[in-house]
Amino acid sequence: MDFFLNDDELMIQEVVRDFAQSELKPNAARLDRDHRMDLGNLKKMAELGFMGMNIPEPYGGAEVGVVPYSLGMIEVGRACAATAVTMSVTNMVAEVICAFGSDALKEKYVPRICSGEYPAGAFGLTESMAGSDPGAMRTTAVREGDCYRLNGSKIFITSAEYAGIFVVWAVTDKEAPRGRRISAFLVERDTPGFSIGRAEEKLGQRGSATNEIIFEDCLIPAANLLGAEGNGLKIAFMALDGGRIGIGSLALGIGLEAIDYASDYVKQREQFGRPIATFQGIQWAIADTYTELEAARLLVLQAAFLKQKKKPFTTAASMAKLYASEAANRSCYQAVQLLGGNGYTAEFPVERLYRDVRVTTIYEGTSEIQRLVIAQQILGRL
Ligand SMILES: Cc1cc2nc3c(=O)[nH]c(=O)nc-3n(C[C@H](O)[C@H](O)[C@H](O)COP(=O)(O)OP(=O)(O)OC[C@H]3O[C@@H](n4cnc5c(N)ncnc54)[C@H](O)[C@@H]3O)c2cc1C
Q1: Average pLDDT along the chain
Q2: Residue 312 has what pLDDT?
Q3: Distance from C-alpha of 10 to C-alpha of 218, rounded to nearest angstrom
């Protein structure tokens, strides 16, 4: 067993770290304050290959592998969580199209994502009555000749305001058994009948747009179907397996950033005539947090490694996402505590990190849903 990163992995980690530290981190507070993504930085990231890290080169991807992708997501998560979630979802969308799209769809859309022609890709699964249970969705797609007619709406769609292409799920056969009712499609942003609805006011990751999307008699080419009709849920779950490696990595990055900041702070801050780092209570908090984040790192990289080796990774990805997002939340909580009153103010970055990390136990499957996935893999369907 080899725990060391190879030269290529170290090089990619360094490239992403340099960019994240110089271009993303200095702007993270501004994005949060203005509730606005920096589209210029998304374009630069695409040019550096960050938007298609696991995509084959012929489609414009960097094709560097899942472990380097995870390492990159950790670095971007450290610097700016809002940008990191944009990168994570965009990579996931490019991968879904590559895995399930026809040659024509892959050739048309994937290079536009990887090159940054599209600032982002979006993933349209959740509805107001179908969150943890996407099988309950109500958006419909009715076949009409060479088209499908879409009606319905989705909520909480990351990057909807600037995404160029949307993967969208809709019911194609209401009468079919539950697992066969839904299909996946690609929808271009300027398609008539498709519109972007209201933006959510969020606790954190405010630089990333999260909107409703609406379909009103929206006609899309039948050729935009991904995979076979009725296979939509399977496609969604496979995409989310991979997406969870991205979100686990992103969460880990936020947790590491918070506790690194707090570790420096406790060495400077003096109370009772000495640095608070000299108190054992503080040292234990630091030791426990780094231990948990190291365990999270091993889980996340193991899941990435399995996916890279084309081995089954569903359980590993859910374990990684569950543990990393929960550990990162504890880390940010601890970091605020270690800074005392300062930690609660926007003067210090842990206040934003604490808000940014919260959603990582919710999106791409809540912690409870990760536990369901893990238990189902272990116990089988009961
Ligand atoms: C900022 C943000 C960005 C997002 N981006 C996207 C996106 O780009 N695309 C997209 O499609 N979706 C996106 N989502 C939606 C996200 O994936 C859902 O919010 C999430 O899956 C949970 O669904 P829900 O909010 O409907 O909660 P619910 O499903 O209503 O869950 C409420 C609570 O019940 C628990 N629960 C539900 N079922 C069970 C069960 N069987 N056992 C135990 N507990 C259960 C949940 O864990 C949770 O604690 C985003 C959400 C947010 C907040």
Answers
A1: 98
A2: 97
A3: 46
**What is the DSSP code string of 108-140?**
HHHHHHHHTSSSEEEEE--BTTBSS-GGG---E
pLDDT digits (tens, 9 = 90+) for 10-31: 999 999 999 999 999 999 999 9
Dihedral sign from CA coordinates of 282, 288, 294, 300: negative
What average pLDDT does range 287-312 have in this prediction? 98
Choice from 363, 372, 376 to test ligand 1 binding pocket (greatest atom count within 8 A of CB): 363
> Does the C-beta of 153 come closer than 6 Å to ligand 1?
no
Ligand 1 near 134 CB (within 6 A):
no
Q: Among 366, 370, 376, which residue has the most ligand 1 atoms within 8 Å of its CB, making it the best to mutate?
A: 366
Burial of 141 (0-12, 13-18, 19+ CB in 10 A): buried
Q: What CA–CA distance (Å, rounded) separates 240 from 252?
A: 18
Active site (annotated) includes residue 201: no
State phi, psi for 141 to the nearest 5 degrees.
-130, 115
159 closest CA partner among 212, 115, 210: 210
Query: Among the CATH numbers 1.10.540.10, 1.10.1740.10, 3.40.1190.10, 3.40.50.2300, which is that of 7-120?
Result: 1.10.540.10
Say which of 9, 127, 292, 364 is annotated catalytic: 364
pTM score, whole prediction:
0.98
Question: Domain coordinates of the chain in residue numbers?
Answer: 7-120, 123-233, 234-379
pLDDT, one tens digit per residue, over 181-221 is: 999 999 999 999 999 999 999 999 999 999 999 999 999 99
